[in-house]
Inverse folding.
């Protein structure tokens, strides 16, 4: 994959995000899972956008559990 190509990603975080924190990720769809995690899903324009989102996760002190690219055939949560 080219670092400048758009791609869809899921970012899984520990705990459910509250509304104020979720609002800091406007480019993502936010899903609270039954296991207590939050899954952020978005199509990002390039890897720089992914790194920016991960920097927000870090800067907010959120616990990152998983980052994975989504293939078009993968089911969304």
């Amino acid at each position: 994959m080219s670092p400048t190509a758009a791609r869809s990603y899921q970012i899984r975080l520990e705990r459910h995000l509250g509304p104020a924190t979720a609002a800091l990720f406007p480019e993502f769809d936010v899903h609270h899972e039954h296991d207590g995690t939050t899954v952020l899903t978005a199509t990002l324009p390039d890897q720089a956008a992914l790194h920016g989102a991960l920097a927000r996760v870090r800067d907010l002190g959120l616990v990152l559990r998983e980052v994975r690219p989504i293939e078009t055939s993968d089911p969304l949560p």
Notes: The chain has one domain: 7-70.
